[in-house]
Amino acid sequence: MDSTMNTDTLFRPFIHPKLELPNRIVMAPMTRQFSPGGIPDDSVCDYYRRRAEGEVGLIITEGTTVPHKAASSHVQIPRFHDEALEGWAKVVEEVHAAGGKIAPQLWHVGVIRKPGEGPYPDFQTVSPSGYLRPEKKVLEPLSTAEIDDLIAAYTQAAVNAKALGFDALELHGAHGYLIDNFFWEGTNVRDDEYGGSLVKRTRFAVAIIESIRAAIGEDFPIIMRFSQWKQ
Predict the structure, then answer these.
(1) In the CATH scheme, what is the code of domain 24-225?
(2) For residue 101, with 0-12 CB atoms within 10 Å meaning exposed, 13-18 middle and 19 or more buried, which class applies?
């Protein structure tokens, strides 16, 4: 019996009405903290261009934070708003020039951010119910108005992604970060439309996607990352 793994499928084109790739090899997002002041520089452009030159089918960037002051836990994590967008525009240009395709991973770290961390150290960390983990409450719950602001932040980041010429976007809904804080019953004990049953705990993510779709249309690909483990 031949035990050799057949990898032919990996090298076949992926064809979808919203996205076509030359192969099925996808570069996973990897946090690097190599963007001075949160702004991607030439070294970041070179990093992603080299991956495109290696003929990976789709590059998903390291997590890049949405325009919300509690989104980031480190000043070297790239932002996806304001002056950082010029750096990302150069990344897209170089990846496309090398024949690649690229999607930003839009990220808010949620309750993982410790007090005083990130580019806005005086801004309060956020969590759906104020819980760091089950039975450990460290913050006040988010108000519905604050949730609306967060949905708007993700939406603006998505608008930025499309405007910059990215080929898709990914929402980071895994690993104990903000969207995952809503998914997990250990950190989401809300009793409104955003908490309770599993379906209700997905409402925050659904509201983000609905808002993004309304802003950028039906044709731009949205990827959702989720996982079973937490930070």
Answers:
(1) 3.20.20.70
(2) buried
What is the full per-residue pLDDT of the chain (231 aa) written as tens digits? 566 888 999 999 999 999 999 999 999 999 999 999 999 999 999 999 999 999 999 999 999 999 999 999 999 999 999 999 999 999 999 999 999 999 999 999 999 999 999 999 999 999 999 999 998 999 999 999 999 999 999 999 999 999 999 999 999 999 999 999 999 999 999 999 999 999 999 999 999 999 999 999 999 999 999 987 775
Q: What SS3 class is residue 79?
A: strand
Q: In what order do the strands lie in the sheet with 222-225?
A: 26-27, 58-65, 102-107, 169-172, 222-225
Give the Cα separation of 123 and 107 in Å (integer).
17
pTM: 0.95
- Give dist(CA 47, CA 88) in Å, integer: 12
116, two tokens? 């005083």
Residue of 48, 131, 154, 177 with catalytic role: 177
Tokens 């325009």 found at: 67
Is 177 among the residues known to form the active site?
yes
Burial degree of 18 (CB within 10 A; 0-12, 13-18, 19+): exposed
